[in-house]
Amino acid sequence: MAVYLNLELTDHCNVCCPMCSQSLRHLAHGETKSFMSWDAWRSVLAGLEGAPEEVHLCPHWLGEPTVHPDFDRMVEYAFAMNRDNRLFRSFKLHTNGVLLGDSRARLMVRLATSPHHAPDTFTTVHWSFDAASPATYAKVKGADRYEQVARNLRGFVRCRERQGSLWPRAHIAFVVQPDNAHDAERFLSTWGALLEETGRPWDLTADWPSQERDAIYFRPLNCADQPTADTLHARICTQLGIAEEGQILRAAESF
Questions:
Q1: How many CA atoms lie within 13 Å of 93's alpha carbon, on the beta-carbon side?
Q2: pLDDT on residue 34
Q3: Residue among 152, 97, 101 nearest 127 (CA)
Q4: What order of strands is seen across the sheet that includes strand 90-95?
Q5: DSSP code per residue over 215-241
Q6: d(Cα 249, Cα 233) in Å, to the nearest integer?
Q7: Is the terminal CB of the chain with fewer CB neighbours within 10 Å at N or C?
Q8: How far apart are the first and last CA of the chain?
């Protein structure tokens, strides 16, 4: 048995994606947006020790975890307390990448390569990117941060390679929707070239990828008109050679 635990550091965010429920509601959880306290973070982590199930930890739900004022300290503390994987078996970070610059890339790689836990503990940094140009990014992310995120993503992958680390994997995500569908081929070409630089095999998928390799993946937009969104997603995936026409693209456990 395993427990997949999301500990939301904050429900604040520094972009405004029209497809994200965090952006669609003034109060993401029905109350004033806030930051998890340092004491709460320490307390929850302490409560994981001796858990009967294997714990897989992700510090994210609706907000952007890296905007938390204590993000670096909190993540470093979690790994320091996880010696011999006594609190959690794996850790992954979901981020829009705006604030994941060079110093944080080095921090992520340093935590992943610590000798005090299993080598594959820090499995993934998931990049919610969704665009291949500044204009498209502004439409689907509600902010002018394309060049910053592109620079950070390149810096992260190259930092990891300089350190010779296999982890964390880079998962580069594109939620297919009417405002960005025209960018799909360029997105694949741009970030596929970056992953090719590493010389490692990587996956191209139409749903959540495996944690075992780097990946670029294209997911359908979750929305009120799901059949139309799924049809657009299927068309783009067929064009990219990810799927054959008429193929069912969503895994049974996908959301």
A1: 29
A2: 87
A3: 97
A4: 2-6, 54-58, 90-95, 122-128, 169-176, 214-220, 202-205
A5: EEEEEEPPSSSHHHHHHHHHHHHHHTT
A6: 9
A7: N
A8: 21
Structure tokens at 66: 């890296």
Contact between 35 and 10 (Cβ < 8 Å): yes
Q: What is the pLDDT of residue 184?
A: 98
In this prediction, residue 249 has a pLDDT band, given cuts at 50, 70 and 90, of low
The CA distance from 9 to 174, in Å, is 24
Q: What whole-number distance in Å separates Cα of residue 134 and Cα of residue 137?
A: 5
Summarize pLDDT for 148-185 with one digit per residue, the tens.
Answer: 999 999 999 999 999 999 999 999 999 999 999 999 99
pTM for this prediction: 0.93
Contact call for residues 148 and 98 (beta carbons, < 8 A): yes
Q: Using CA of residue 237, residue 241, residue 246, residue 252, what is the dihedral sign?
A: negative
Token pair 């990587």 in the structure block, residue? 202
List phi, psi (to 5°) of 108.
-60, -45
218: nearest Cα among 232, 205, 203:
205
Considering the four listed CATH numbers 2.40.110.10, 1.10.260.40, 3.20.20.70, 1.20.1050.10, the one that applies to the domain covering 2-239 is 3.20.20.70
pLDDT for 220 equals 93
